[in-house]
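::Amino acid chain::
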Amino acid sequence: MLSKKQIALLSIGTSLTFWDIFNVPYIENYASKQIGEISSTLILSTEMLGYFLGGVINGYLASKYGRKFGLLSSMVLISMGSLLGFISLNLAMLLVAELLIGIGIEGEVSVVPSYVSEMSSAESRGKNVGYTTMSGFLMSLVVTPIAILLGEDFWRLLFLPSLFLAVIALLFRIKLPESVLWENKRYDSLKWDKDVVIFTLIWFASYFTGYALFSTPIFSLISSHGYTPSNLYFGYILYGDPLGVVVASVLNDRLQRKYTSSLANLLSAILMVIWPFSGIMFLPIGFAIMFLQGFKFPAMYTYTAENLGTKIRTLGYGIADGIGHLGGAVGPIVFVLLQDHIGLAFSTGVVGMVAIISSILIMAFGQITNKIPLDKIKG
């Protein structure tokens, strides 16, 4: 089992991953002033494509060669992409950088919750996955003021911290033990699990809505309500996200994850329909939406790993979360296109309602998992 020190140090790499997730809306928004709004959406969409590739590739490698291999490869890819983004001179270089970062990010996401779940007791599994997740989401507290401070002239410096954190994470992860559950199953053959398809649909719908909240139309929505500069007020709303992660991490072993995962998606959808018409409650409701987006991750990260068997866990997780991230690639583009046809307010509600699909699927197909050993759930 992992010690508290190992959980804390493992979280360094996870915080690096989420640094790169949270800096994307600022990079996209700042870069749009140079390359245009439509072209800038390709930055986020390209990173989402990297998520798809990273989940499948790193998930398979971690299933075949061990969880530790996957933990190391994700850090290498993120550092390479960050270096290229830092020195990027044009859109092509920037897109390649975000592709590499996306592959590394999803490589991390597909392995860490599985590894931590396998190396934790049934009673502390949710808490430990929650704490590693929390370390990542708390990076939004750091990214937002730095991104606003750097502004349009120095936004490429947002890539720099990844280079330093990756080195620290690599040095520590070399010393981590291999997953005992994986070692016990390493020579078993991979067997397909239908729940991989179900959780792929769950993540696709959830990410469709979630990443639409990080796209350019959201900044326009904020400005249309008189809150300028929109970057600043987006930062205020975004603080709901890490708060949601903190609360969910504390409660992750106390509340049934099936129900919290479903409810977070359902309430997000309802609030996004209301949000554009909320008047003086615009900022509080925006904050609540981000809170729910953050709240869902500790529960859903743990819950996805729990619903998959040991041998296919990282591969299945990588497929579900990786292909699911294509929803995050499609969502922002659909949002931009919809606002030209049905208006900004109604398009916000439409992309929000997609999350209801996730809520329904979790309730229909998800298992009860809290405090049950992983090998007793799916083997």
Summary: The domain at 9-174+192-377 is CATH 1.20.1250.20 (Growth Hormone; Chain: A;). Residues 10 and 115 are 10 Å apart (CA to CA).
